[in-house]
Amino acid sequence: MTFLILTSLLKIIGIVFVIILPMVSYAVYAERRVSALIQDRLGPNRVGPAGLFQPVADAFKFIIAKDPAWEASYFDPAFDLDRAQASDPDDVLGSTDVNLRPFFARGGKLLLYHGWSDPQVTPYNTINFFQKVVAAQGGAGVGTSVQLYMVPGMNHCTGGPGTDTFEKMAAVEAWLKSGAAPARIDAAHATNGVVDRTRPLCPFGQVARWNGTGSTDAASSFSCAPATLEPVR
């Protein structure tokens, strides 16, 4: 029951922060644009081409500067970057606190994944975070409390030629039951809604290696093996 409640809360939080809040920001942006056209004026969207960056400026204005009169033209990187970090003393927005011992002590499991082809956020950020979390545990917890799976060819969260679709919650549920993170997670790539490739996602430090037989589009033809740097021939 507790797990179901936690899962529901995580889904609600994800929907609110990933879907609803961005939609609200750009709904406000659209309303401003339409109002400006009706009134034959430029309107308040002045940041970026056609005001596209105004929601970002508004976030800085109200969350960091906490000043309704703040304008994007006031931004000074020599001063405001430090102010942005200081505005989040509990690291809620930064999410860089690597001491997750209280979470793990309650039986929490952290499944991390990142696309190697992410054009927006470098995958090395997630790798660094994972390694720092492990280091904060004294090197323990890999595969029992935390595990990272890199996704070759996946863009930002989804998309790209990589196998970007997999059952994340099913993986966590299996982890909770067995006590060990999945040795592999089979993922799929689809074109026009039709799956045309599957491939295993392997724990960080391993890669999917073809067994030498079978279709290269089938996950069953691959095994997770230690990643090695082989000389270019």
What secondary-structure arrangement, pairings included, does this model have?
Blueprint: H1 2-38, H2 54-65, H3 77-86, H4 101-105, E1 110-115, H5 123-136, E2 146-151, H6 168-178, E3 185-191, E4 194-201, E5 206-210, E6 222-226
Parallel strand pairs: 1-2
Antiparallel strand pairs: 3-4, 5-6
Description:
The protein has 233 residues and is an alpha+beta fold. The protein has two domains: 20-86, no CATH class; 101-226, no CATH class. The protein is 38% helix and 16% strand. It is built from six helices and six strands; from the N terminus they run ααααβαβαββββ. It has helices spanning 2-38, 54-65, 77-86, 101-105, 123-136, 168-178; strands at residues 110-115, 146-151, 185-191, 194-201, 206-210, 222-226. The strands form three sheets. The protein has a two-stranded parallel sheet with strand order 1-2. A hairpin with a 2-residue loop joins β3 and β4 (194-201). The longest helix is centred in the N-terminal third of the chain and has 37 residues, at 2-38. The radius of gyration is 22 Å and the shape is globular. The protein starts with a helix and ends in a 7-residue tail after the last strand. Residues 38-43 have low confidence and may be disordered.
